[in-house]
Amino acid sequence: MEKRFMKGCEAIAEAAVRGGCRFFAGYPITPQNEIPEYLSWRLPEVGGAFVQGESEVASINMVYGASASGKRAMTSSSGPGISLKAEGISYLASAQLPAVIVNVSRGGPGLGSIQPAQSDYLQATKALGHGGFRAMVFAPATLQEAVDVMYDAWEYAERDRGPVLVLMDGCLGAIMEEVTLPPMKEVNFNNTKDWCLARVDGREESHMITPILPEPALEMLNKFKGMTYKGWEMNDVKVEEYLIDDAEYVVVAYGIAARVAKEAVNTLRAEGIKIGMIRPITLYPFPKMSLDGLDYDKVKGIIDIEMTIPTQMRDDIELQVKGRCPVYEYGRSGGMLLDDEGVLSAIKEFIKEGE
Amino acid sequence: MPDYKRPKSLMPMATSYCPGCMHALATRLVADVIGELDQVNNAINVVSVGCSALNLYTWAGDVIGSAHGRAPAVATGLKRCLPDRLVFTYQGDGDLAAIGLAEIMSAANRGENFTVIFANNQTYGMTGGQMAPTTLIGQKTTTTIYGRDPETTGYPLQMCELISVLKAPVFVARYALNSPKGVADAKKGIRKAFELQMAGKGFTFIELLTNCPTNWGMTPLQTLEYMNTNTIPYFKPGIYKDKEGEA
Amino acid sequence: MITINQLMCKGCGYCIKFCPRHILEMGKERSQKGFFYPVNIDADKCTSCAICALMCPEGAIEVTSQAK
Question: How much is the pTM?
Fold first, then answer.
């Protein structure tokens, strides 16, 4: 295990390489440019390929082609670019091709701002593209967690053969932290993948990868994927539950917002307030059980804290709270960052309201 | 004369193309050449959207369907990861010359080492005959019912001419499939493009002038003459760039 | 000598038009698929030049050189 002090974007790029990534295509957009910049020289070092695409649209389709070869492929972008990639992501889902997509998100809508925000939650979890499909969405809160998520992202992508999204934000992309880098994975591209176009093990019969299917086959695929998504909810939810056993107030926050919120929780605990936090690490599948299973005889309020206005995770929270207590929301938006004082005073306001 | 056998890269059944459609002819030509070059198990057909997508059900070798216009991007990713495979895109004119302009020009400019087979029939066949970027001036389509008017729709895009001015492409040529001479030449051109690719020389582009009896509202035989009098004078067949030949 | 696969032929007529010896014509019967298809009216004159096969969109024509 190797420790390094790294910038977020570079840390996840290195983690991707160590996780077996051998192809990257992307288009410059702030605040994720250090990912393509890093991979442009790093991938050739390990026998991989880097292509700077002519657009996000082209880049995601290059990833589609690369993935069809059986190699581990990824792209990265930020909100406006992820919108452009929506086409290709949907095609990946349809053709059942694994890929990892990183969104280092920024303020929106539109060109928005280039500063960090969490405004792409709904896009990530509900509508990554047309046609009705889901992707696992990981939202790390520390660089170590981001490294670990990237390292294993293809295991999920290849297991269920589809796109996996890593949702970061501009803060995580830009900060520097110490990370422990895992060892380089030995990925054998040539003996396990019967779905790819590589003629593995001297295979004679040809193979078709298609994003279009006859209607009955498409319905079968839809049904099969529906079962897969259900399976995620059973087996793949990742969540951090922090001080919730006796909590009267529960903050729900993910990614960078959760780091700020955790500070507030610690401060309030020191003041004697029974408050805890639920931090979804997988935004999809959403940690339904964590919220549904709270003791609502005790819990007086849920506080959704996100770096976007209006908050977007609130719908998913309310579906689990089912009206058993009030749900409050606080956020900053447009590239304006959450800060300790703002979050703390907002939570105190909600608690006063609840009492 | 050598015997002629149906190529192995085609499914052993009729295509889904309309009677007389030169998409079928173009596909068969590519399959012929792949058979002759003994690449049946090595070739990958990157299929696009439009009538060209019917290749998914016609092609018996390795095949991958791609999004509308994006076949050159898909082929880029594929070929970079599988450099020893013979990779070609099969695209129509709406796909390549309208929605996919950025992808085709950029792939050509990067000199990606794959081949583009471009079937140009001057209409959107699959969607019912709308105006394509290549539709001829005055040609009637379902979105230009009085004929294409350059005042509002511009002029038919000549892709060989556009691509041949780029530095990277090594072979750019156009052939008309409405005569045995044109078809025989096209076959030679496809063969040359594939051979260049297999030698790692770079980007090769083959435009095939084709027809659309259904949406042109003609019998297959009528389209042959129409192509002589209308299509060929504007889209002139010939070799537009031959880097290896010049060297 | 040529053989025309009736299951693949769609009756476009290219082979008839381009046969240099004019030995093909459109038949009077329909195939299983409902298309008229070409028939070889003078097989002895066939030189196996394969132009019919070259022009056939469907690859429905196969050519074998006649053993003399």
Answer: 0.96
